[in-house]
């Protein structure tokens, strides 16, 4: 009986203890004392653990990580442009297999309970589709343990590097799930040009967009307006995400109100990593207006950032810490962003701990959802589609 | 031979492999192949681990932690005043032994490599010296594994609660090592009054001061001026610390220059926790001007903050992350703040990895100091005064 499993004595979302019956990789039933009702099925004793759905890594760069390689000292890079250039310099001196590196980072995520990943992958005239091919190969190897969406990401800009738009389109044809973007004004200098180009590609191929927007203050706000306008015009509500959106933490309350309204009306979701070096985003205002928020690890031990460990529970802590969320309500919000928020942003079907959902789940010691965000306990068991894929931080497949 | 120990094959501060000979709790020699030169001594195989001095926890509240107690939902507390009041409300409903709780948190720190702690301890007319007595009892229990300085901390203010100044003086007589303070303007409303009172107590008893300063912007800057003035007048250079000093991240460059000059001239050190919900401090400007900086865990799982785990290596990461320090130089700066910066601020003698220093040290897997800040590897062995006190995160005493 592949992908059949009985998990005894766990507390779904911190509620009362129950058993969970999994059939064909889906949650069949959750209830008390299911043991008597089934026989001959693989059984896990849950030891009164907390049971949560698998984490959703909403924003990572699988192709960039230097994880497990000899320590590489990062170069001083005050601006985004310099970071882009310095990444090229740092990587040029190293022998890096994108496929191998992406594999390491995917496995690290799985071992910590990640069931779904959205990764941006660099596309530019220098790299061509080589990074995409490497990450797609790594995705194929791990497909039974994690599902992965890939964003064709023009790290170095679109308009300033002729041929990039065509490469993005090639990437989508080759298997990328979404079209990316980066600071249409700050990096490309032609906000309308980049957005028109990327929305047109997305339209032609029926895929969504996930756009990096680091640009600060009103420059960022201006571009939220442009993105919202195009999202509505293309009927893309629910298919567009803005990643980072640092500007939302840098503008006045009236401007925040305007931005939140634009995002809500046009159905754009917002991703934050809880970047402690930038002002926090108005996450509660976004939630209250119905704007979907989610989170991700972003750069993990790469040329951009030495930080990061692909632990989405630590990410929930970092987002909460940046927002000074000390109440259960705030901690539960950042937990939701690392789980169902990401699932909704990625358009995943059957995500959650209800009957009929995919049996993607994590067992860990803890009292409440708020407590595990701050305590970040080890992941005892990670289940994907009804199969145990990791135990005590080690992969078992 | 108590407190004699030979550690073979470690890399002090990430340098070349060496052996470390410890005699009577002090580092006797560090060099290659010391094995042949000694016999009959307890020996540890270091497995090419990185060797670093024990961490210095420069700012914690041992008396406040709710660690290990049933999860307590925090109350919404937008202001410092409300936090103070809500802590009283939350704790009133719980049975909390300060001695037991402080002991838990001290042991958690030791298990993660902390050798020295500076803890603030609440003193007010309601509590009297009860928290101090509890923490002093816990300190006594753990004295072979960690050294602890206590600050008599007027959490609820000095001037606004008559009798508090007298209690601080009682606390110093009873064993507190330093006089504390809190937002002389923002909490007490009488900046000069509080500072005159606390400096006078410190002067009478020949102890230093460590003052909480959360007050923002120019209100904080004003008080840095008052503290600097009194530090010089009392000849207290090297004996005064300002904790948090959020204002340094909130003022313009010219004001920062003025503040840094004041701090440098008067010999005041600055403690930060890398609070992600506030702008970062100008740590490199402080360093360049010769101002000593250090770090601490602050509130650990208490009524103020649900966050925290007394891991000073994680704290170094959080401080670096808040400052967007991605180069080795920046990561090494926050490592130094969590080690010798704190040691100097606490006035510790014989701190470090040189011959003659106290044998307080940590072995952990890692390539460089910068790498361990981001990777935060488990602490394999923790040594205090030449004795192994923890292995793999578990106390052995």
Q: Secondary structure elements and their pairing?
A:
Two copies of one chain form a homodimer.
Chain A: E1 5-12, E2 18-23, E3 26-31, E4 43-53, E5 55-60, H1 80-92, H2 98-111, E6 114-122, H3 130-141, E7 147-153, H4 164-174, E8 178-182, H5 191-205, E9 208-213, H6 217-233, E10 240-244, H7 253-266, E11 268-272, H8 283-288, E12 293-295, H9 312-322, H10 328-345, E13 361-364, H11 369-375, E14 379-384, E15 387-391, E16 394-395
Helix pairs in contact in A: 2-3, 4-5, 5-6, 6-7, 9-10, 10-11
3D architecture notes:
The structure is a homodimer of 397-residue chains. Chain A has 397 residues and is α/β, with parallel strands linked by helices. Chain A folds into two domains: 5-53 and 351-395, Roll (Urease, subunit C, domain 1); 55-345, TIM Barrel (Alpha-Beta Barrel). Chain A is 35% helix and 24% strand. Chain A has eleven helices and 16 strands. Chain A has helices spanning 80-92, 98-111, 130-141, 164-174, 191-205, 217-233, 253-266, 283-288, 312-322, 328-345, 369-375; strands at residues 5-12, 18-23, 26-31, 43-53, 55-60, 114-122, 147-153, 178-182, 208-213, 240-244, 268-272, 293-295, 361-364, 379-384, 387-391, 394-395. An eight-stranded mixed sheet of chain A has the order 3-2-1-4-13-14-15-16, covered by helices on one side. In chain A, helix 7 links the parallel strand 10 (240-244) and strand 11 (268-272). The radius of gyration of chain A is 21 Å and the shape is globular. The model of chain A has no long low-confidence stretch (mean pLDDT 96).
């Amino acid at each position: 009986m592949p992908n059949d499993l009985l998990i005894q004595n766990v507390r779904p979302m911190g509620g009362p203890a129950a058993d969970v019956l999994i059939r064909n990789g889906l949650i069949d039933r959750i209830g008390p004392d299911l043991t008597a009702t089934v026989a001959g099925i693989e059984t896990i004793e849950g030891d009164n653990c907390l049971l949560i759905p698998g984490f959703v890594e909403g924003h990572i760069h699988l192709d960039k990580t230097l994880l497990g390689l000899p320590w590489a000292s990062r170069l001083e890079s005050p601006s985004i442009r310099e970071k882009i250039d310095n990444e090229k310099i740092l990587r040029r001196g190293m022998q890096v297999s994108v496929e191998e590196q992406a594999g390491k980072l995917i496995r690290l995520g799985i071992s910590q309970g990640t069931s779904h990943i959205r990764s941006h992958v660099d596309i530019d005239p220098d790299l061509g589709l080589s990074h995409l091919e490497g990450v797609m190969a790594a995705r194929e190897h791990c497909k039974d343990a994690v599902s992965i969406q890939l964003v064709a990401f023009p790290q170095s800009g679109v308009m300033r590097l002729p041929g990039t738009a065509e490469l993005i389109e090639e990437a989508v044809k080759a298997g990328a799930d979404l079209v990316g973007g980066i600071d249409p004004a700050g990096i490309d200098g032609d906000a309308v040009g980049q957005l028109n180009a990327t929305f047109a590609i997305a339209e032609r191929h029926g895929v969504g967009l996930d756009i990096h927007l680091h640009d600060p203050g009103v420059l960022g706000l201006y571009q939220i307006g442009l993105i919202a306008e195009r999202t509505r015009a293309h009927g893309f509500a629910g298919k567009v995400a803005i990643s980072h959106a640092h500007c939302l933490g840098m503008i006045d309350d009236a401007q925040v109100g305007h931005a939140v309204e634009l995002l809500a009306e046009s159905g754009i979701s917002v991703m934050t990593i809880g970047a402690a070096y930038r002002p926090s985003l108005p996450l509660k205002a976004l939630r209250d207006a119905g704007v979907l928020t989610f989170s991700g690890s972003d750069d993990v031990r790469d040329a951009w950032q030495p930080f990061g460990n692909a632990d989405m529970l630590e990410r929930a802590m970092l987002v909460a810490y940046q927002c000074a969320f000390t109440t259960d309500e705030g901690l539960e919000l950042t937990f939701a962003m690392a789980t169902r928020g990401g699932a909704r942003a990625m358009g995943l079907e059957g995500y959650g701990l209800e009957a009929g959902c995919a049996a993607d789940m994590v067992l860990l010691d803890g009292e409440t959802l708020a407590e595990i965000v701050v305590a970040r306990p080890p992941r005892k068991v990670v289940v994907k589609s009804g199969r145990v894929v990791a135990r005590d931080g080690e992969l078992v497949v």
